[in-house]
Description:
single chain; alpha+beta; Butyryl-Coa Dehydrogenase, subunit A, domain 1; Butyryl-CoA Dehydrogenase, subunit A, domain 2; 4-stranded mixed beta sheet; 9 helices; 38% helix; 23% strand
Amino acid sequence: xxFSFTEEQELFRKSVRxxxxxxxxxxxxxxxxxGEIPREVLYDMASFGLxxxxxxxxxxxxxxxxxxxxxxxxEIARADISMATAxxxxxxxxxxxxxxxxGSKKAKEELLPDVTKGKAFLGIASTEAAGGSDxxxxxxxxxxxxxxxxxNGSKTFISGVREATKYGGGYxxxxxxxxxxxxxxxxxxxxxxxxxxxxxxxVFKQMGRDGISTGAIIIKNxxxxxxxxxxxxxxxxxxxxxxxxxxLPSDY
Length: 252
């Protein structure tokens, strides 16, 4: 069995490396010192087709497979040794893939194009203070109330909190819809965070990788439209969910 990259993949790597050397590497020190990825860098990445790279072309993405996605991850990380830009890219690649797979058509049409254009951030909100990444132990809940979904709880050590709050966007969020069913009562929803009543965010101080923030989200009686419910009672989603981005090379 031959595990070598194809000629097309090698050409893709070369083009991404050239892009990164021109558009990301010159900003590497600034990203680390100022603790923020310049918007022009993100817009350039979007124009090149890197942001939300796994999202289908119907929603503005490149529809890339995981090998292609991983190649780009390596080249982005090579250009920005703080890893901030690579993590930003990786989070959107991984969770953009799952949002496309499990989100409603209306939600995808509404949300994904802005992600691929660099106008909005898309991340994952799974980790909680009491259980880490043990999704069965989460306490955040979601209940249907009329035409809305009511979400309550909190998430911590979440990537991109400052970015989503400042520029717009949100999170594929793990919630419990039927707590009595344990792992079978888990669901996903998309949770917007900018200017949303009931949402409070905090940004943590950290050592290294300052270009993309890490923080907490407090969710108190937040109502979201029903079409932002991504998946219900699908344990299979959560069994492979963490592997999607973490199988791609990065420090995420």
